[in-house]
Amino acid sequence: MSDTIEPVADRIDQQQLAQQLVDAARAEGIELVGPDGLLTGLTKTVLETALEAEMSEHLGYERHDPSGRDGGNSRNGTRTKTVLTEIGPVQIEVPRDRDASFDPMIVRKRQRRLDGIDEIVLSLTARGLTTGEIAAHFEEVYGAKVSRDTISRITDKVLEEMAEWANRPLDAIYPVLFIDAIHVKVRDGQVTNRPFYVVIGVTVDGHRDILGIWAGEGGEGAKYWLQVLTEVRNRGVADVCIVVCDGLKGLPESITTVWPQALVQACVLHLIRNSFRYASRKYWEQMARDLRPVYTAPTEQAAAARFEEFADTWGEQYPAIIGLWRSAWSEFVPFLDYDVEIRRVICSTNAIESINARYRRAVKARGHFPTEQAALKCLYLVTRSLDPTGKGRARWAMRWKPALNAFAITFAGRIIPTNGS
């Protein structure tokens, strides 16, 4: 009981102390934030107190302690230093020693920013702000000048982390993989639209797991996809039950080469969305209603009958839509053999759409990128912002237990839930 009471009492004391400080500041007309604000003063006090504690530990005696006299190394005054913090610039006095061997950790030598500032820069970059916009943000909000070169160096620090993330070990089996593309403008001599492929897996535990991001040139074939999927397999993915993709050239053949038991499923959402490209917007809602009986049909025979009805209604006006579905039919129909819970996972817009929306916002805000690596860095920072641990995990799958049971029955012997499932 006492272990619980003490932390609560500590919190109450901290709240009371904070309230007293705020009340005193207001009574004296002191602002909470700003160069002479309460938070700036507190930050200065905390940093200087921590630095003094580090110096005492380094020298082996407390400040003003007579035991430290004539004992070799000793304090040698202070030097003024300004550090950029999350509340703005703070001027602090850093203690010095006579032989210059003091190497503080709380504010390191030559350090001009606290670590929280780097995270702010990375977060703003993930939201699509350019280096110039981030520099303007710091000047406007914090009253601090941060150069574009400094911002670039901060974001470049994640390149090593990005490489580790892109090569991290993966799970042995994924019930479902989604492969999707987002198009990014990259200047390579001239500005061109480049596809960047995102592979998202649904784990046996029901997590959305972003396995990686790969840059393409457009028009990729079997050789490219075999290289990408072999890389995924070499990172530990021994088996995949279903791969949902959008008819990319050479991809289905590469999938079954790497994972012979995998079923290739045309993305139903993409089929529907691609159908709308050929139709006037005013017909989209009606067309979506007419397509629903096709992909919710209980059997392939029933789906074929519903599709013929759809073709009779729309075929004369939009023959290209009918051709689109007929060409994708062989990769669409496996979907009809699945349990309704498996269909729900495959059709879930949450799997990729929410993530892609974040990617698109960041990309759109930037306009175009000078290099492929710059684009990959931005997309990685968006991914990183979804999960600060750097594992690239996005969110829990919805209603996973019924789907897990359906997968375990449909793919008997291949789906083995972990203790945490």
UniProtKB/TrEMBL annotation:
Keywords in alphabetical order: DNA recombination, DNA-binding, Transposable element, Transposition
UniProt xrefs under PROSITE patterns: TRANSPOSASE_MUTATOR (PS01007)
Annotated region (Disordered), positions in chain: 57-80
Biased composition range(s): Basic and acidic residues: 57-68
Keyword Coiled coil appears in the UniProt entry: no
InterPro entries referenced in this protein's UniProt entry, alphabetically: Transposase_mutator
Record-stated family: Belongs to the transposase mutator family.
Role noted for this protein: Required for the transposition of the insertion element.
Record's protein name: Mutator family transposase
Lineage: Bacteria, Bacillati, Actinomycetota, Actinomycetes, Pseudonocardiales
